[in-house]
Amino acid sequence: MITKIQVSQFGKYTVSAFRAPLLCVGIAMIMAMIIVQFNSITQIYAASPLMLTTAGATSSGERANASQQDQDQEKAKDQVPESLNFTVESIDGEQVDLKKYAGKVVVVVNVASRCGYTPQYKSLQALYEEHGEQGLVILGFPCNQFRSQEPGSNLEIKEFCLKEYQVTFDMFAKIDVNGANRAPFYEYLTKQELAPAKAGDISWNFEKFVIGRDGKPIARFGSKVRPDSDEFTEVVKKALAQ
């Protein structure tokens, strides 16, 4: 059946080609689309509490992890080895907390630029280049207490080390290693009963201490023991293997 729809008050008609069955199908499709959209919106709102809960749980977990990290850092501070619980001055005048070397194998040397043992700078640098990536650090402390063989300023000492031996290991400001003005770090080191050298004052330039990864001093060597000698390198390699 054809339905005529009046579209004007002047009696003109437009004939629509809608048939009744087709009209019903169209209405049904529109209703189905409305229902689908309504269901989608309902599902989104239903999921919102779960999404908020999940986000809240994630946020709480992140806060818990951050809190645990803070606690671990505080615990690590409390566990700084006694040997590294000192602050010293770098050769550039900056304050250095020795706890930054915790977990490393540390070689400590009192150095001088005009000493018969000064060429040991070369073997110390070679040792550092060979084992630095494995966790070896070398700390050089200039000292002028032995026949005034380190008279220069910190800047002059630094320039000498770079020019003559291309030193890249850490160097520090000039200090006293003996006497009333002995640096606290050396006050601690010289009291340790080690081998082969024993506790007591530093005898000469280029005495060497070795501190293990656990922060415990494990050896002390006199000036005559070269950094590239088997006696010295075996101790360092064993400490690095720990």
Write a structural description:
With 242 residues, the protein is α/β, with parallel strands linked by helices. Helix content is 41%, strand content 15%. The protein has helices at residues 20-78, 120-131, 154-165, 184-189, 230-240, and strands spanning 4-6, 13-15, 87-89, 95-97, 105-111, 136-142, 170-171, 208-211, 217-221. The strands form three sheets. The chain has a five-stranded mixed beta sheet. Strands 1-2 form a two-stranded antiparallel ribbon. The longest helix has 59 residues, at 20-78.
Oligomer: single chain
- List the secondary-structure elements in sequence, H or E: EEHEEEHEHEHEEH
How does the overall form come out from the CA principal axes? elongated
Estimated helix fraction: 40-55%
The portion of residues forming beta strands comes to 15-25%
Strand order of the largest sheet: 7-6-5-8-9
Q: Mind telling me the C-alpha Rg? A: 39 Å
Distance between the termini: 97 Å
Poorly predicted regions are 1-20
User: What's the overall average pLDDT, rounded?
Assistant: 83
Strand runs, count: 9
**Overall SS class:** alpha/beta
DSSP helical segment count: 5
Major β-sheet profile: 5 strands, mixed
